[in-house]
Amino acid sequence: MANFPGIDVAAILAARDAFEEKVPSVDQTVLVELNHEFHRTIAQASGNEFLQDAYEKIMIQSLWLSRQCYVSGTDVEYTDPEHVGPIVEGHRALCDAIRDRDANKADLLAADHCDLFRSSFGQSVGGTLDLDRRDSDRA
Q1: C-alpha angle 91-22-77 in degrees, rounded to nearest 5
Q2: Helix/strand/coil (H, E, C) string of 81-110?
Q3: Separation of alpha carbons 132 and 53, rounded Å
Q4: What is the pLDDT of residues 9-35, one digit of tens each?
Q5: What is the pLDDT of residues 78-111, one digit of tens each?
Q6: Contact predicate 3/47, CB 8 Å
């Protein structure tokens, strides 16, 4: 199959599971690190060096931003385990699309996952993200 040739789905699922296992601990610093590792594993499993390099640069910045959201302790929402639920759901759906070798669905889910991050970060700094505008841009 042309989509995701030779991708290491087992490694991606293991990284997802490692993240999910820590969710009940509410150790947000650990969750941020494991979330980063989950996304890094997807990039590495792709076998695409360009994607790996680009992803690593983006993730370093988003890792710092995530720490600001989760570790600041200024907003109860970001220390509440319920906040992590949509992240877990997004990871599961993305893993399902990758396992099913559905690149188009994985791409859409990844974009949705990025929107979730931007929205969370925007809320933590007192702003909002107009996701309706983004959806109309897709049409």
Answers
A1: 75
A2: HHHHHHHHHHHHHHHHHHHCCCHHHHHHHH
A3: 31
A4: 999 999 999 988 887 776 677 777 888
A5: 446 667 888 899 999 999 999 998 989 999 999 9
A6: no
